[in-house]
Amino acid sequence: MFYIKKNKRKCAVCHNYPDKYDPLNLYYAQQEKKYGAEHTKAEFLNRKEYTCPFCYATDRDRLCVAFFRKIFENKQDKEVSLLDIAPSAPVEDYFKNNQPEVIVKTADMLMDGVDYKIDIQNMKEIEDESFDMWICFHVLEHVKDDRKALSELYRILKKDGMGMLLVPIDLKTKKIDEDPNCPEEERWRRFGQGDHVRRYSKQGFLDRIKESGFRVIEVGKSIMGKEVFEENAIPKSAILYVVTKGKSRFVDKIG
């Protein structure tokens, strides 16, 4: 009798079954070593299984889409507007192929081909309460004033909407370390990347979000389930920070 071993991995974005995901580019570890980067404990980063070999979705893309699949178990009865800041191609493809009622607009300060070429610290091109949803992953650690950026994100979100936030969080540090004026070499050492201007602690990040007026729901393994985390190689400590202005038609049933 033959037994077929069940593959533990299943990408939430493309639904392919890789034997394992591809590791994070060694460049980052090499730069950290070169500049003597401080040792950290990342809340959400799987260096060994980072990228899907089929659709190139990162670990955070996979958890993001798994969450969208959860809240969009049924098709929406009307169009949903979503702003993807520093957009992810795999996430855009997911919506195009699976949730056409979600109308995705993109924004970035440097990237060509986006709908809004803007600085999220001052999104004057976007009117108040314009979007039902937005995604802002690994952006706030790059901007000079993350409080201004969070204030703008609050402004453009509809009253019953939902935002999704991620930044690199170091579980070993107790407070935010930031300096937008330090040189690149020091940024590698203190913040873990040459274009980062701060390193977030978990509590510091939560406090900063709440200062902007948001309610925060921490979406982790207890909400998403063990199977989703294992299939997508998501670290046990990973948290997706879902924010609302109050009651939200998208997430109140889980938060």
TrEMBL record:
Gene3D superfamilies xref list: Vaccinia Virus protein VP39
Keywords: Methyltransferase, Transferase
CDD domains on file: AdoMet_MTases
GO biological process: methylation
Chain ranges of the Methyltransferase type domain: 116-162
Protein name per its UniProtKB record: Methyltransferase domain-containing protein
Keyword Methyltransferase: yes
GO MF terms, alphabetically ordered: S-adenosylmethionine-dependent methyltransferase activity
